[in-house]
Amino acid sequence: MTGLGRGLGALLQDSDSVNANKPSGRTPPYETISSMNEIDVNFIEANPYQPRSNFDQEALQELADSIKVQGIIQPITVRQLGRDKYQLISGERRLQASKSIGMQRIPAYIRTADDQQMLEMALIENIQRENLNAIEIALSYQRLIHECNLKQEELGDRVGKNRTTVNNYIRLLKLPPTIQAALRDNQISMGHARALITIDDLVSQLKIFKKTIEEGWSVRKVEEEVRKLSLVPPTDENNRRIQTIKQEIRSLQFRLSSYFGSKVSIKSDDNHKGEIKIPFTSQEELDRILGSLDLEKKA
């Protein structure tokens, strides 16, 4: 589990320690096993909390071919539900690949885990070990926050990412379905999506998105077009000065929005007086913004 920090390795250790510290008021339905065992693949049922629904069949076949030659290098992880009955925690691709080449038994670690631990372990294992697309990562982060009751900073510790990175992924879920689908299918990159999400007007957002797809715009090109949305065509020296100021403000808004993971608005008059607004929709989002500023809430 090297390199996972507080992630999957710590969770698995926690589940063992929790079980070991429970009072022995009743006999458990099975013995908790910490060593590796070989289990009949027919005794293992799917993980109901598996966050990934689509698997690359070509990559799956490559894994199966590798297993034929090398065997299972890394055992899967399961929890035992009863005699000859197990539920997968992590290793869905390894299990599927093994079944496809007719393997009858597969090496596995048996762990104790409740439903919430199952979900958390499955999500973190997939985030850290699988080549998930940005939308799948965003959905996994969102589920960890809402279903596992993790705060964003705790989530960052679990997956080895800073809070800004985590929030940038979660913000992708605010994009309209059409743009989310394009990101999921690798038609646009994370950089494209982060630029598009700063556009408040849906019509303008979809217009730029459409041109990005049709004309193959780079991330920099999309960022330029986003900044142009608030510009007034120059007709004289004064307008050129106004345009420059607005462009600088738009650029600053974009940078601050990326930093705070929230849409930031900046207003400024000709005397360079104005205001910066950072909206939030929940206590958690406020805590995140304050954390980014290294400020603590005052009682």
UniProtKB/TrEMBL annotation:
InterPro entries: Chromosome_partition/occlusion, HTH_ParB/Spo0J, ParB/RepB/Spo0J, ParB/Sulfiredoxin_sf, ParB_dimer_C, ParB_N. Residues 37-127 form the ParB-like N-terminal domain. Keywords: Chromosome partition, DNA-binding. Residues 12-31 are annotated as: Disordered. One of its GO terms (molecular function) is DNA binding. Belongs to the ParB family. This is Chromosome partitioning protein ParB.
